[in-house]
Design brief:
Elements (H helix, E strand, L loop, with lengths): L1 H32 L10 H17 L12 H23 L8 H44 L1
Helix pairs in contact: 1-2, 2-3, 3-4
């Protein structure tokens, strides 16, 4: 039980940390793209920062599902990315990252972009972990060969 709490805490920290890095980088890109004229009013920054924390938790906490070996990989992915994506879209709506005044097509475009980025990030991490597992298996194979 203690190990599960530790894993949950670590997953939450990783999710929040990664989300915070993306938030800051995106903020810098938008500020530079707008010629340094980005201004936030009515707690705009606070709402966005809290939204970033919520999204980090939304993707970070469900990542512990990958520790559950009794679940198939597609079910693990569905739980992790389904939860994270749902939190992302709801939080984006609440925080105001989806321009409601520009209509459904613009909202759908932004939602699709957000989901593509989220799945792209997930896929990058997946490939990295797969490569790491292959290296570990290769090292174990080499060690096994040496002991024979």
């Amino acid at each position: 039980m203690k190990e599960q709490k530790h894993q949950l805490f670590v997953s939450a920290l990783h999710g929040i940390g990664f989300a915070a890095i993306l938030f800051v980088l995106t903020g810098v890109i938008f500020d530079c793209g707008n010629g340094g004229t980005t201004a936030l009013y009515h707690y705009g920054f606070s709402k966005m920062a809290l939204g970033t924390l919520v999204i980090g938790l939304g993707f970070g906490l469900p990542a512990v599902v990958y520790e559950r070996e009794e679940l198939s990989r597609p079910v693990q992915i569905l739980i992790h990315m389904g939860t994270g994506s749902t939190v992302l879209l709801i939080t984006s709506w609440v925080v105001g990252w989806m321009p409601r005044e520009q209509g459904f097509l613009m909202i759908a475009k932004i939602a699709a972009e957000q989901l593509l980025i989220a799945f792209g990030i997930w896929f990058g991490f997946y490939l990295n972990q797969k490569k790491l597992a292959q290296k570990m298996n290769q090292k174990l194979s080499e060690l096994e060969q040496k002991t024979k």
